[in-house]
Specification:
The complex is a heterodimer of chains A (113) and B (112). Chain A is mainly β and 113 residues long. Chain A has strands at 4-7, 10-13, 19-25, 31-37, 43-50, 53-57, 64-70, 73-78, 87-94, 103-104, 108-112. In chain A, the strands form 2 sheets. In chain A, strands 2, 4, 5, 6, 9, 10 and 11 form a 7-stranded mixed sheet that branches. Chain A has a 4-stranded antiparallel sheet with strand order 1-3-8-7, with no helix packed on it. Chain B is mainly beta and 112 residues long. In chain B, strand 10 and strand 11 form a beta hairpin. Classes of the chains: A mainly beta (113), B mainly beta (112).
Amino acid sequence: DTAVSQTPKYLVTQMGNDKSIKCEQNLGHDTMYWYKQDSKKFLKIMFSYNNKELIINETVPNRFSPKSPDKAHLNLHINSLELGDSAVYFCASSKTGSDSPLHFGNGTRLTVT
Amino acid sequence: AQSVTQPDIHITVSEGASLELRCNYSYGATPYLFWYVQSPGQGLQLLLKYFSGDTLVQGIKGFEAEFKRSQSSFNLRKPSVHWSDAAEYFCAVGTGTDKLIFGTGTRLQVFP
């Protein structure tokens, strides 16, 4: 069974469109995250949620809106997509606490044309 | 501010050779340190972690890392590299919140 699964794996869309990426974890973790990996492989946190509550919001544009319907799911909705949004987006989960390792999904490669 | 530096962007080794990937961190308190590996098209997988205690930690796939407080380093080592170890390696530091700070990664290439 996949521990952290995100869909879709690939997403190609045009500028101005709205798209969503879904993430689910079956590890019973309380904390979920979205990370963005750019073309140079740099990984940067975007959001974290703990028990459905937003904990970290790293000055991400308002066009990005995470939603956590329950602690096993954290979806990412992106409005008015821009070329610069092209990246690989990773969902991750962990137990609460900075000493807890992250478990990553396999990523969603978003390409905005 | 907390930061992680991986000085080597790209390393090439021959299969069977030893490996050391460098990681330096900047953090005021005792850090939580991690190494992750990312294979092409995959997410990141935890190799090992350091929280406290023995400064030499063992991980999966034959990797180990040594925490050296005096050098603010947490270098990853493997005595004999296999072709399947070719991947991107990321060092990360836990900051006391739920946020991990990642280094920029080191790409490992293995020649037969």
